[in-house]
Amino acid sequence: NAGVTQTPKFRILKIGQSMTLQCTQDMNHNYMYWYRQDPGMGLKLIYYSVGAGITDKGEVPNGYNVSRSTTEDFPLRLELAAPSQTSVYFCASSYQGGSQPQHFGDGTRLSIL
Amino acid sequence: ILNVEQSPQSLHVQEGDSTNFTCSFPSSNFYALHWYRWETAKSPEALFVMTLNGDEKKKGRISATLNTKEGYSYLYIKGSQPEDSATYLCAFSTSYGKLTFGQGTILTVHP
User: pLDDT at position B1, please?
Assistant: First the structure.
């Protein structure tokens, strides 16, 4: 059972480039989340989804887009990369919202130069 | 903006010591409180999800209590071991699982 899988693990982008961070889970979880971790700032929620076709903004959504066409996949897209988006990104999933624990992927370390 | 605060920021203890950390959160509109352990170079791992005032949860040597009326939760580690060294995060949760995390408590257990 793979759990939550994130790809790539590391990436360096130039300012203005775009990319998609992939996240897939094989636990049939309805809820999925994207977080970013900034030094000294903890984990901040970017976007979340409560099921296929439904997404909503978290605390820091600016500069990002998401889609949820299937239960398994929840990609995060950066359209115009900026240095402020240098961070470690974590995808997570849970079976049933806030009363259930979230399962995290291993993270994607992204540097924008 | 929700404010979730954890104290202390960091803690150094000797192997065998017992220790505890605090998580403070808004007492209004409470749904759930999550605790996670985050080891270096790994991803956060769930310890507890607590939903009821007075909840007490236990997992091996780690336990947690919850007071939703006054807005705090305590995490206790009994007989700390070096493998307990990690960052311990608490998070205030909405019904949709939108988590607002505290900054974490960094625990270092010295052999």
Answer: 67
pLDDT of residue B35: 98
Decide the pairing of beta strands B45-50 and B56-59.
unpaired
Contact A99 B102 (CB under 8 A): no
Q: Which two tokens stand for residue A63?
A: 């500069």
Contact A86, A13 (CB under 8 A): no
* Closest-approach residue (CA) in chain A for B6: A42
Up-side HSE of residue A72: CA atoms within 13 Å toward CB?
Answer: 5
Q: What is the DSSP string of B16-81?
A: T--EEEEEE--STT--EEEEEEE-TTS--EEEEEE-STT-EEEETTEEEEEETTTTEEEEEESS--
Q: What is the b/e burial string over B50-60, where b = at least 16 CB atoms within 10 angstroms of the residue's CB?
A: beeeebebeee
Per-residue pLDDT for A101 more than 70?
A: yes
Non-local (6+) Cβ contacts of A13 within 8 A are A19, A78, A81, A110, A111, A112, A113
> Given B89, B91, B97, which is nearest A97 (Cβ)?
B97
